[in-house]
Amino acid sequence: MHPVDWTIIALYLSWIIWTGVQHTRGSTELQSYFLGNRSNPWWAVGLSVMATQLSAITMVGTTGQGYTDGLRFVQFYFGLPLAMVILSVTAVPFFHRARVYTAYEYLERRFDVKTRTLTSALFLLSRGLSCGAIISAPAVILSIIMGWNLTLTVLLIGIPTAIYTMLGGVQAVTWTDVKQMYVIIFGLTAVAIALVLGLPGDVSVGDALRVAGTTGRMQAFDFRFTLNETYTFWSGLIGGLFLMLSYFGCDQSQVQRYLTARSEAEASSSLYMSAYWKIPLQVLVLMIGVLVFVFYLFNQPPMLFNPVHEARVKQSAVAGRYADAEQRFSKAFAVRRDAARALASSDSASSRDAAGAAFLAADDALRTVRRDAAGLVQEATGDRSYRDVNYVFPTFVTTHLPIGLIGIVLAAIIAAAMSSIAAELNALATTTVIDFYRRLVRPEAPDGHYLTVSRIATGVWGVFACIVALYAANLGSLIEVVNRFGSFFYGSILGVFMLAMLTRRASGTGAFVGLIGGMLLVASVALLRPDISFLWHNVVGAVGVVAMGLLVSLVVPAALPTGDAA
Amino acid sequence: MADVPHTRTLGSAAKVIAAEIVALLLLFALQQAFTP
């Protein structure tokens, strides 16, 4: 990599660490360390909420998804604006008026300590592990594409984040998130412009999108109602609504962002920022993937995007067959390039139909060669699930963008990772200290003691996340297990909060039994009906918990009249 | 007085829903314009 790009990354890291560490002085008590004295403006909280959600996996994986599947993934977010509307009249006023540090603290006021402890323990378990995955995924990709040492890449992302989060607390997280969001938006916009400028002179943006549309990549909507497809209009609107309600309403890594807002109204406005901008931002990210696909119609891509796998195949017994596939790939690429050019320049409906059919046939031939090559990788490496979709965007960035822009985009990918990790470390430490240490271990200690413990907890979670990241890098399936495990109780936790906020009849025992029952129900659905998409698990979990919780509450009613904390 | 925040909440919610409908319609138009 060119020294200019290294300098940009170094400047970015220095800027972020400096911003974070600056907030150390203001974080002198628990209230300021975890809630920033509830003083932040809506726009900063809103950007922090968006930066937390947008991880490096989103940047690299979603552009890859745009490259292979087009715009359809955007349907995943269709429930988000509705979720924000619902949360602004439920979670936001409930949490703000209850003056809580964590979402789970509220559950004790409404139910009992066992329900609070179980939900916060589930949060620590899932987020602690997923934080490792959030570091690991971009670190593996960057180390492979850039040839960097994996351990150093994990530490490059994890250590600075842990340091500024540990020192500056939630204010460091919020204000670094704001700057990281600027870097991300600038990086994405610059790539989109570079891609448009990189089109051949005789191919307009409209032509490019029409060629992409011929392959179905401009198809954003799928109105079929099926439980088996993850990305449809209905699964996004209904399943996505429940997922987003759970993520933004019950997950401490998001709840803590808007607890720092200076008023209830500003907290709502911060959520509305995502409601307005998440779908357009996601379309931009996916569109970049689509444009990378178009770019590679006119510029020969590597046959496989993972260079490590490619190198291993070339040194294996199937190297000859791989070389033969490369020759076929070059020929197939030339045929597809000419077909794409013919399609782009066709102006009548009939010639467009014929050119479209020829282009699709050429694209199919190219994909057949790529499938053969992926088969050779599987033969040579034993990796049964070869997928290189996450390597497409970083490969494009590092091989086709100009010097300077490479550094900016890599900084944006690192920024996306760091902003999500910081929020998670901050939330993990808050839950550890507030829901466990202060509640169960040492309830009566001076504020300074809790502040010291909070800083230690943040550092310990940072080290834990880096260790998980290093192990997860070698155990790809572990990440899948963690994600799957998380999906078992995401909807169920939402169900507990629905019982807390929407009903007066639910008792603590009802909520506790309902939560366990809901998780078992989701696990049964996942095991017995693996064809049902995971987005629907959130609906099953939430509805299951509410139904079971209310039933059990009839048998074991609340011991005392319960009033809303709000 | 009590109606003021309530009205504001409803107004903000209506604006968010309206913006989503417009965004989805634009996305649908984009799809239809470039999908044969």
Largest sheet of chain B: none
How many strand units of chain B? Answer: 0
Greatest contact between two chains: A-B, 32 and 19 residues
Number of domains of chain A: 2
How much of the sequence lies in strands of chain A comes to under 5%
Question: Architecture of the largest domain in chain A, according to CATH?
Answer: Up-down Bundle
Count the DSSP helices of chain A: 22
Tell me what portion of residues of chain B adopts beta-strand conformation: under 5%
Unreliable sequence segments of chain B? none
Description:
The complex is a heterodimer of chains A (566) and B (36). With 566 residues, chain A is mainly alpha-helical. Chain A folds into two domains: 3-296 and 398-471, Sodium/glucose cotransporter (Up-down Bundle); 307-387. Chain A is built from 22 helices and no strands. Chain A is globular. With 36 residues, chain B is an all-alpha fold. Chain B has one helix at residues 3-34. Chain B is rod-shaped, with a radius of gyration of 16 Å.
Structure described in brief:
Chain A has 566 residues and is mainly alpha-helical.
Task: Pick out its properties.
heterodimer; A: 566 residues; mainly alpha; Sodium/glucose cotransporter; 2 domains; disordered C terminus; B: 36 residues; rod-shaped
Write the layout of secondary structure elements.
The complex is a heterodimer of chains A (566) and B (36).
Chain A: H1 3-22, H2 30-35, H3 42-53, H4 56-69, H5 80-89, H6 91-98, H7 103-110, H8 113-146, H9 150-197, H10 205-214, H11 233-250, H12 252-259, H13 264-298, H14 307-314, H15 319-345, H16 349-381, H17 392-400, H18 405-441, H19 447-474, H20 476-502, H21 508-528, H22 535-555
Helix pairs in contact in A: 1-9, 1-18, 3-9, 3-12, 3-13, 3-18, 4-13, 4-18, 5-6, 5-11, 5-13, 7-8, 8-9, 8-18, 8-19, 8-20, 9-13, 9-18, 9-19, 10-13, 10-15, 11-12, 11-20, 11-22, 12-18, 14-16, 15-16, 18-19, 20-21, 20-22, 21-22
Chain B: H1 3-34
